[in-house]
């Protein structure tokens, strides 16, 4: 399996300049992919996400609603730099809890930007964390951004 190996969609009809106002390019492009790693606390989500990111040379987007904040490393079992094995993590320990809460809407906006950036750089976005409310908000976002644009793989770790 290769990240660059994307499903090719062949057109059923050929318009060949007959309907120049119809833009079928968005229907014909290969769909990009996003992997979600979810599960209970202490189930090995981070380890699996790091293994996948190492294998596919990509990056991880944190979706744990406590681990987005600076500090609390021991309390939240946040991955250490050694455990990250050089895999870049986004939205991990970057917000100050005293500045206010990161809402699900905020997370959707930020995670969507990270997913788009990684995809634009031909990297497979891996979203990992135990806060299913963030993942659910992203999957059900009103714009349909995620499910309309990407093929999603949801992995539950027990």
UniProtKB/TrEMBL annotation:
**Under which name does UniProt file this protein?**
Adenylate isopentenyltransferase 7-1
Q: Which InterPro entries match?
A: Dimethylallyltransferase, P-loop_NTPase
Q: Which organism is it from?
A: Brassica napus
Q: Name one Pfam family in it.
A: IPPT
Q: Name one GO biological process term.
A: cytokinin biosynthetic process
Gene for this chain: IPT7-1
Instruction: Give the UniProt family note.
Output: Belongs to the IPP transferase family.
**Alphabetical keyword list:** ATP-binding, Cytokinin biosynthesis, Nucleotide-binding, Transferase
Which terms does the record give in the GO molecular function aspect?
ATP binding; transferase activity
PANTHER family, sorted: ADENYLATE ISOPENTENYLTRANSFERASE 7, MITOCHONDRIAL, TRNA DIMETHYLALLYLTRANSFERASE
């Amino acid at each position: 399996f290769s990240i660059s190996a994307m499903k090719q969609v062949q057109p059923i009809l050929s318009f060949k300049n007959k309907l120049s106002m119809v833009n079928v390019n968005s229907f014909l492009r290969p769909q990009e992919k996003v992997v979600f790693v979810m599960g209970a606390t202490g189930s090995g989500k981070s380890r699996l996400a790091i293994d996948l990111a190492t294998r596919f040379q990509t990056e991880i987007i944190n979706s744990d609603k406590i681990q987005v904040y600076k500090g609390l490393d021991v309390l939240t079992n946040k991955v250490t730099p050694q455990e990250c094995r050089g895999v870049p993590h986004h939205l991990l320990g970057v917000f100050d809890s005293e500045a206010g809460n990161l809402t699900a809407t905020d997370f959707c906006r930020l995670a969507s930007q990270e997913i788009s950036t990684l995809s634009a750089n031909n990297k497979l976005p891996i979203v990992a964390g135990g806060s299913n409310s963030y993942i659910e908000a992203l999957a059900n976002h009103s714009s349909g951004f995620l499910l309309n644009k990407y093929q999603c793989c949801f992995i539950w770790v027990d």
